[in-house]
Amino acid sequence: MAFFTPEQELTLYKLHRTEENFEDYLSFLKDSLQDFVATKVAPNAEKNDRDEIFPESTFHELGELGFISLPFPEKYGGMEACFSYYNAGLETLTKGDAGFALGVAIHGTTASGINLFANDSLKEKYLPGLVSGEKIGAFSLSEPDSGSDAKAIKTRYPEDSNGDFLLNGTKYWITNALSADVFYVFANGPDGRISAFLVEKGWDGTFEQAKIEDKMGVRSSNTAELIFQDYKVPKENLVGEPGGGFKQAMLMLNGGRVTISSWSTGIAQGAYEKLLKYAHERQLFDGLLKDLVPIQKEIAEMSIEIRAARTLAYDTAFYYTQKKGDVARLAAQAKMKATEVSVYVAERAIQLAGGYGYVKDSKIERHLRDALLGRIGEGANELLTSVVIPRSILKEFEENPITDQW
Ligand SMILES: Cc1cc2nc3c(=O)[nH]c(=O)nc-3n(C[C@H](O)[C@H](O)[C@H](O)COP(=O)(O)OP(=O)(O)OC[C@H]3O[C@@H](n4cnc5c(N)ncnc54)[C@H](O)[C@@H]3O)c2cc1C
């Protein structure tokens, strides 16, 4: 079973064919990772979806395989590869199990934030374990009363007499929260400016985790509420400057959107392939489903949309690595496209598979349930199209207006 497709190879080829390590990274994705997904991820996806299990041991094994380390600095055990390889791998992983892959993606966002914003001593303390996949990370921004409006978070961090911080508040919807060792937590200061902290379990004060039950999709990721009451965070665990947390969160979300674009492409590809296979098996009107011209037309349209989503995703990952362009706009565009494509393809795949598509046995319906999360998480698509993308476009126009009429 091909979890890494020739189209993925082609899209990477365009970006990296002249680079020395291209074949090495490609063979890692085509052989090691593909085999891992085929033997350890995909076979358990149905059960993990049904029973809401995030397979922690598989996560650690994925770390041992080296996948998680791909984009991180060698100094901390990484391979320093372009994010586009990581994106390609995440697409493959998602095809096998989108819930599990979401946990991997959010872990990556957490580790990337530490790599970008923490001082050397925090990096040395936390990154090796996260990069190797021995430890699991969680990105903890959202709250019961604050999602899109991230500045409205209510978690507070008064200082005690030693200058340590006392976290007070509730985080909500936190992926990996029941498995994580390291939590990248955002809290609001007295001046209304957000700061960021690296938080572990087992410190003084109260830190409780409560599972959010029965999500419709991404059920093999764990999602929970975090409750902090006078939870003592050492002053050394402040990330960056006091008040610098909101900017960190926004930049981490840019990276997160880059990865979610490939996550969503993986869902679309999975639904598309299942439809393609079924269309070659389903007999009707003295022929096969695949012989019907309207079906062929829709399959063609799906393939174009998936290719567009993948190309945007890998290209954006490349620009993100190269620090080229306005990453906020590029990442939001890629995320928007891929998440909409995944919902479109999964929904049409169910429709075109008829009654078979509507039952769990087809394994297509899981793709639609998973795909719907992509439009909500990492910045809801409505927010991206009404704020993030137009803001960037209008700013660019104002800086460099088009004045000629031609
Ligand atoms: C399964 C799952 C996993 C998650 N994992 C994490 C995680 O690991 N860490 C984390 O911090 N958060 C996580 N989240 C939270 C997620 O980021 C938020 O759900 C998301 O940001 C939307 O926030 P909200 O749910 O509060 O919706 P709201 O912000 O209340 O939005 C409600 C509606 O308003 C729309 N809307 C918002 N702003 C605008 C606007 N300006 N213009 C037009 N429409 C708008 C939205 O699109 C949405 O349809 C997760 C959520 C889920 C469901």
Fourth-tier CATH superfamily name of the largest domain: Butyryl-CoA Dehydrogenase, subunit A, domain 3
What is the residue-mean pLDDT, rounded to a whole number?
97
Strand order of the largest sheet: 1-3-4-7
Quickly give the structural class. alpha+beta
The string of secondary-structure elements, in order, is: HHHHHHEEEEEEEHEEHHHH
β-strand percent reads: 5-15%
The proportion of residues forming helix, as a percent range, comes to 40-55%
Shape call: globular
In a nutshell, what does this entry contain?
With 406 residues, this protein is of the alpha+beta class.
Q: What do you see in this structure?
A:
There is one protein chain. The chain is of the alpha+beta class and 406 residues long. It folds into 3 domains: 6-136, Acyl-CoA dehydrogenase/oxidase, N-terminal domain (Butyryl-Coa Dehydrogenase, subunit A, domain 1); 138-242, Butyryl-CoA Dehydrogenase, subunit A, domain 2 (Beta Barrel); 246-398, Butyryl-CoA Dehydrogenase, subunit A, domain 3 (Up-down Bundle). The protein has 11 helices and 9 strands. It has helices at 6-16, 22-51, 56-65, 83-96, 98-117, 120-131, 245-279, 293-322, 327-352, 365-376, 381-399, and strands at residues 137-140, 165-175, 182-188, 194-199, 206-211, 223-233, 238-239, 283-284, 287-288. The strands form 3 sheets. Strands 1-3-4-7 form a 4-stranded mixed beta sheet. A 3-stranded antiparallel beta sheet has the order 2-6-5, with helices on one face. A hairpin with a 2-residue loop joins strand 8 and strand 9. Helix 4 (83-96) runs antiparallel to helix 5, helix 5 packs antiparallel against helix 7 (245-279) and helix 8 (293-322) runs antiparallel to helix 9 (327-352). The site of flavin-adenine dinucleotide has 22 residues, from strand 1, strand 2, helix 10 and helix 11. Flavin-adenine dinucleotide binds at residues 106, 139-142, 147-149, 173-175, 215, 218, 223, 373, 376-377, 380, 382-383, 386-387.
